[in-house]
Every structure is written in structure tokens, then in C-alpha cells.
Amino acid sequence: MPAPRTEVTEIVTGLAMLGFPSLRDALDARPPELRNVEPAHWDRLDEVFAEGSMDAEFRGAWSNGLAFLGAAAGLRGRRPYLIEWKGPHRTPGYDTVPADLRIDHVYLVSCKYLSKILMNVSPAYLFDRLLVDRRGPVPDWYLEVAPDAYRAFYRTVRDHLGAGLPAEVDDLVKDQRIVLKERLAGPWPGKLAGPYLEFCAAAADASAARWRAGLADPAAQEEMLWRLLRLSGAPYFVLGTAPDDVLRLRIYTPWDWRQEFSLGSFEVTGDAAAGQPVVKWRALVTPRGDGRELPVEGHVEIRWSHGRFRRMPEAKVYLDTPHYDVPGYSPLDADDRLSRGLQLDLSL
DNA sequence: CGGAGGGGATGCTAGTCGGT
DNA sequence: ACCGACTAGCATCCCCTCCG
Known about the structure:
12 strands
């Protein structure tokens, strides 16, 4: 069962597009146009709504759905005949568009909690395979790119913790990893903090070098930026909520992007100052017919999954540029301003 | 507030095993 | 040798909290 918050956000966003006079009416109707929502989901929604503990989420999702119903680039006031909720299941195959709702078979909508996290993937998939082929060898990334630094750091840890651990990090087995994770919970002990930072710097630099190696030509850089920003072959919409903010974006396709922008540069560097292995990325984008360069930047944290030394490292990709300043992310209300005549009265 | 880290969920994959 | 069914393990995806 997904977190109630996710369910509230996604289902209520869809509900609001169906034009009910109020959320209460919509919840009571349990409209059949909203597919894949089971009775248990409706029951839980009723329960959470009655409790009132998630009023902010309800309000945000409701206003997002209404905005999409009225938006020029969205439904322009046309009540959909079908809203498919992706539901608690992960979509099979390669998930290019992170869509939680599909409206009338064509409009793809992703309902996000406002977040700077773009994706969380395996390091080899990002740095070696450039987000192209998910399937591939699954190395322990730290051993793959910074074996000497990783082994040296492990030996320092082992010497600090004492007996019961193998001589080399390569020989750790599952139970030992669990023990390591538990004994290393919390801040690094003073004697390990310095060596850890050294290892972080080595892993970050090596990861950046690996990434750069695949990004030699401009075409590869441009495609990399598109994939990082999750541009997809089909346009889609992001309707985000936060306690007191909303984010409503239309996400360009590469085709849209090319018509408005060109890529000046894409740079990747290890971040020695961070408290974990971090690789920074930065693109300079030039709008066509206008000389001002727009920076887009973010960073990638490389981190153990499920605790220190426990599972394979994964790569968490962050966007540091505000969403509204990203070339290729177009605010829904900007589209509305372009076609003012289509604005509808949405007061309830 | 956001960087650092935690951990549940899901479904892929590499095993095993019996049958052909 | 190959195939399909089945399954345990775990890589990856996703969302969460904690704390300075």
C-alpha cells in the first residue's frame, strides 16, 4: 500500500478534473471515469478526508486538478471521459515518463510532491550508460571507479572496529554488511571522518571522469541533458504540491526543446567540499534568437542504499535550478497567458 | 530548510529443478 | 541440452525522516 499522501495527491488531482462542484461531491460520487481506483482506495480517502490530517494535500491536489481542467495547454474546460490512475504499481518496462495519471488516453500527468530530486538510479546506468540502457552489468560502483580509495577506506574502518571483519571490502558477506551498517550508524567516528571525506573526493572525481568520457561530443551532451531533465518523446505535465506552494509545468519533448534552445556546454565536476560523494553538473543553454545564456545545474549524490556498506551504491540526481527557470519546463499559467481568450470561470 | 541518510516496495534476474 | 515453472534474493525505485 502506497503512502496515504501519495494516494491523496494523485487521486484527488484526477478527481478535480471531472468538474464536480466540490471535493465532497466528488468523493461521494466515486466516478467511474476514474479507473483503477478500488473501493479500498475510496474508503481510505474518505477516512483521511474525515480526519482532516491532510487538508493541505487535498487542497493542493484539488486546485492542481482544477487548474489543469481549465488550462489552455490542458483540458480547456472539457470534462475528460477517462482518467487512468497508474495506481500503486510500478509501470512495467522503461519508465521514461513518470506519469501517475493518463487522461483521455493522451494527457500524461505526473503528480509530484514538490521535490528537487529528479531521479534515483544505479550509478552505472547514469555515468556509464548515460540513462540509455537500464540493463547492464551491475558493479559495486565504489569498487568500479575508486577501488584503491574504497579498499583503503574500508581497511581504516576495519582497523577501527576490530575483529570479525574480512581483510578486504571485496570479501564482505551479507551478515557482515549488516553488522557494519549497524555499528556505523550515526555520525562517522572522529577517526573515520577524515578518511571518509578522502574516499568521497576520490569516488566523486572518478565518477565525474567516467561520466565525462561518455559526453565528449555535443550531441551526447544534449541528449544527456534531455534525459536528466526527463524530457520524453511525448509531452507531459507535472502537477506538484507542497504545504503552501504549487508547481504546474508542461514538460517539452526534445523536438520542442530544439525549436527554442540550443546547448552551449555541459560540464561535470567532482565536488570535493561535499560530505558524501557528489558530482556536480552544469549546462549552459542559449535560447534561439536571444544571446542570454541560461544556466541549468544540479548535482548527483552517490550513496549506499540501505545504510553504510550495506547494499549497492545508487545515484540520486538533484536539480538545483528552480523548476520555473529550466529551459524545457513551461509553467502552465504561461501557456494560459498566451491564449487568454480561452480562460474559463472556475469558481465553484 | 535542505543535505544526509534510511528503508519499504516492487519486480527483475539468476538460481534450481524436474520434465522432455 | 534445452525448456518452463517456480522462487529467493536483491537492485532499483520511490518516498520518507532526521538533524545541524
